[in-house]
Design goal:
The structure holds 2 protein chains of 2 kinds. By secondary structure, chain A is α+β, with helices and mostly antiparallel strands. Chain A is 14% helix and 28% strand. The chains are: A alpha+beta, B alpha/beta. The complex binds flavin-adenine dinucleotide and iron/sulfur cluster (2 copies).
């Protein structure tokens, strides 16, 4: 259970996952934020007004997947580092997962990094397609990782360092 | 020689900074005492992004918020900041004494705002006096303020937000975190923080505690064991963890010495993590002219500490006759901000705590997002 391990369950995820049909249309955000906490920068971050929270700052965010363009602005603003962008239209068999990253060293585009799941377990070496550096003020970087399509809902982190060039 | 001052703020954390700014913005002359060499309180050490709403600078990192507040108040001619100055005594006649280097200072303030924050709790277990057993605050100061790597491999004790966040910061600093042990069956801090360290490979063990630390000259490891539902150690569940440091993040308690000395009425409220001064809606204690704001009134968050600071600052200024109407309006706005911050479900179990203070004619300090557990 999430509350005793820190790992969200399948059921937790089902509640916030963009539907498969929507994922076929292009990049879309997924907020893995399951607990009522006093926080709302994601709402303010989205220019499409795709993220809403009702009137109470303690509510969990809700993403309107039809309004979301997958631009990734919310990903860099979320203090919980809980928002990911999934693009299942990226390649024939691959998806692009964009994840927030605050460790050094940063990988370089073209390098391979060890992909990790929500429990920190290794899933394999995946290609870093792009690294979008956070501004001097924001400092949260975005790693764009090309993963096998069936792992688009599994890969949520990379191991810092030890990047490979092959 | 006693110095007469209009508003004296003790403590330069988020509560004290906002109190000084609010009071000065209404026209009061403010003097602020801070024992550290730079004001900012806990914010100075926080390299992670803060929660809250935009009004409390959510999404900014703690140290950035601290710097921002400090820049604003340093530019204010109505505010005098005395760093490296520790308030030592608060006498019944309202005189505050302080130590600055080897100088002994005395102040007679018309209004005093106590914003001294909190102190870390410790945990009793065999071997806890070995070098290498640290409080989480010390680890953060070493790492994030002094730039010193505190250890190679750390065992974290406590899964409140401090335990989770300091684990994350250790990992960022290149320190291995062997795991987070938590006596309770549930993670105490925010689950987004927990998920963030879990997916970085740091295990979180709920229902476990540290049984003892061992090592010759310093910590070489820890024995951890499982707890039953009555928090009793279960024999036979022991595991040995190799580590060169054990970091304790087992909660904070309000730093209230000055409140006691002043003769403020104090109450023990478990939900607020210790003895707290009974305060009115204006955050005035039962000693007229002495206000309290921030963690000293109950362990909570920087966001609420800032808002409380404003409430105390506006109230103190208004009571001295500075722009009373404007101050009342702004104070009202701040109260609404605080109400919103505190309206969450985490408050449910805490409501009992508020009621306890209220019974005494005091107020509304809800400790929702406790940085302890
Ligand atoms: C690891 C960690 C992570 C946190 N993360 C968050 C977060 O994400 N979001 C959030 O909102 N909050 C967070 N907090 C909580 C937040 O930092 C505190 O609630 C907040 O700093 C309390 O503010 P304060 O002004 O009351 O006290 P403090 O920040 O503790 O400031 C008190 C100040 O008073 C000074 N002082 C004390 N005694 C004296 C004396 N006798 N004379 C002179 N000066 C004195 C101290 O030196 C200190 O500067 C976190 C805390 C920790 C430890
Ligand atoms: S990815 Fe862009 S459009 Fe989608 S929710 Fe985030 S900020 Fe809004
Ligand atoms: S900003 Fe992040 S942590 Fe805060 S509510 Fe939004 S998704 Fe949750």
């Amino acid at each position: 259970m999430l509350i005793s391990t820190g790992i969200p369950t399948e059921e937790d995820l089902q509640g916030v996952m963009p539907p498969a049909q929507r994922r076929k249309l292009g990049p879309v955000a997924m907020a893995e934020c399951f607990q009522k906490i006093p926080c709302n920068p994601c709402v303010a971050a989205c220019r499409q007004k795709a993220i809403t929270m009702g009137n109470d700052i303690n509510e969990c965010p809700k993403i309107d997947f039809d309004l979301c363009t997958g631009c990734g602005v919310c990903l860099t603003k979320c203090p919980g580092l809980a928002i990911f962008i999934i693009d299942e239209t990226y390649g024939a068999d691959t998806a692009l997962v964009k994840l927030p990253f605050e460790y050094l060293p940063l990988p370089q585009a073209g390098q391979y990094a060890m992909g990790l799941n929500r429990a920190g377990e290794e899933l394999g070496w995946f290609k870093v397609v792009q690294v979008i550096k956070g501004s001097a003020r924001n400092l949260t970087h975005t790693i764009c990782l090309e993963v096998p399509k069936e792992l688009s809902m599994e890969v949520r982190n990379i191991r810092e360092g030890g990047y490979r060039d092959e | 020689m006693i110095r007469n001052v209009e508003v004296l703020v003790v403590g330069g954390g988020p509560a004290g900074l906002c109190a000084a700014q609010a009071a000065a913005s209404m026209g009061a002359k403010v003097t602020m005492l801070e024992r550290d060499y730079v004001p900012g309180g806990q914010l100075v050490k926080q390299t992670h992004k803060f929660f809250g709403s935009e009004k409390q600078h959510a999404g900014e990192r703690g140290f950035q918020i601290g710097r921002m507040l400090l820049d604003e108040i340093q530019a204010d001619p109505n505010i005098e900041i005395l760093p490296e100055t520790t308030a030592l005594g608060c006498y019944e006649d309202g005189v505050i004494t302080a130590l600055q280097g080897d100088k002994h200072l005395k102040f007679r303030p018309e209004r005093t705002i106590l914003a001294t924050g909190a102190a870390e709790k410790f945990l009793a277990f065999p071997g806890n006096d070995l070098p290498g057993v640290y409080g989480a605050g010390a680890v953060q100061t070493l790492m994030n303020v002094a730039g010193v790597k505190p250890a190679q491999r750390v065992l974290m004790v406590g899964s409140g937000n401090i335990g989770l966040i300091v684990s994350y910061q250790l990992k960022q600093a290149g320190v291995e975190v062997a795991g987070v042990v938590e006596a309770a069956p549930r993670i105490g801090g925010y689950l987004v923080h927990a998920a963030k360290i879990r997916r970085a490979g740091i295990p979180i063990l709920t229902g476990w505690t540290v049984k003892e630390a061992f090592g010759k000259e310093q910590v070489e490891g820890a024995v951890i064991c499982q707890l039953d539902d009555k928090f009793q150690q279960i024999p036979g569940t022991e595991k040995t963890i190799a580590c060169d440091a054990i970091c304790l993040a087992v909660g904070l308690t309000p730093l209230t010495e000055l409140c006691w000395q002043a003769g403020c009425e104090m109450k023990y409220i478990r939900e607020l993590s210790g003895h707290v001064p009974v305060v009115s809606d204006d955050l005035e204690t039962t000693k007229a002219g002495i206000y309290a704001a921030g963690d000293v009134t109950g362990i909570e968050e920087a966001s609420s500490a800032m808002v409380e600071g404003k409430i105390a600052g506006y109230s103190a200024a208004a009571s001295l006759g500075h722009s009373p109407e404007e101050a009342a309006r702004l104070r009202q706005e701040a109260m609404e901000e605080l109400r919103q911050l505190r309206s969450g479900p985490t408050g449910g179990k805490i409501n009992a705590g508020i009621e306890k203070v209220k019974q005494d004619g005091g107020v509304v300090h809800v400790n929702l997002y406790r940085y302890s557990h």
